[in-house]
Amino acid sequence: MVRLGNNSSLRGSTLYCGVGSPPEGLAHLKIVHPSGKGLIREVFEATESTYLVVLANPRVNNLNEGTLENDLKPKLLARYASYTDAGDKVERLLTQFRHWAKTAHPFRHGTAEEQEHEAPIDIAVLMAREGMAFIRYLAAL
């Protein structure tokens, strides 16, 4: 769970978003057979929820390439407008965010194959760490 502090666009209210209690996503690592897929899925959902709250746009209902380009990019360009290389900074950040979301995507869904569609723990921990960094960044916008 992420606490989104007071924000002028949120009319001074304090919002919380994410999934369940704060350690819920990490709980997938405490069992005998930890679920990397579960960890990635929970962190992605928390990141997406934070993203949607920050954008506060009723027509945006998920985190994808189109909404990153059409909704987040203008917000970031305005935020960093005083930098001469704002476009480059924003594009690099969005590229990183796109790659993270694309890497998480296969672990967010089931599979039609008989094989277990599980994420290796080392990849899951890396993905969770990056996702939590994006949550912190988005919450500061």
Q: Can you write the helix and strand succession as a string?
A: EEHHHH
Q: Counting H and I runs of at least 4 residues, what is the number of helices?
A: 4
Helix content: 40-55%
Determine the strand fraction and express it as a percent band: under 5%
Q: Roughly how many Å apart are the termini?
A: 17 Å
- DSSP summary, beta strand count: 2
The average pLDDT score comes to 82
Catalogue the unreliable spans.
1-16
Gross morphology is elongated
- What is the structural class? mainly alpha
Rg for CA atoms: 16 Å
Largest sheet: 2 strands, antiparallel
Q: What order do the strands of the largest sheet run in, or round the barrel if closed?
A: 1-2
3D architecture notes:
With 141 residues, the chain is mostly helical. 52% of the residues lie in helices and 4% in strands. The protein has 4 helices and 2 strands; from the N terminus they run ββαααα. It has a two-stranded antiparallel ribbon with strand order 1-2. The longest helix is centred in the first third of the chain and has 20 residues, at 36-55. It is elongated. Residues 1-16 have low confidence and may be disordered.
In a nutshell, what does this entry contain?
This protein has 141 residues and is mainly alpha-helical. Helix content is 52%, strand content 4%.
Give the key terms.
141 residues; mainly alpha; elongated
What's the arrangement of secondary structure elements?
Blueprint: E1 2-4, E2 15-17, H1 36-55, H2 65-79, H3 86-104, H4 121-139
Antiparallel strand pairs: 1-2
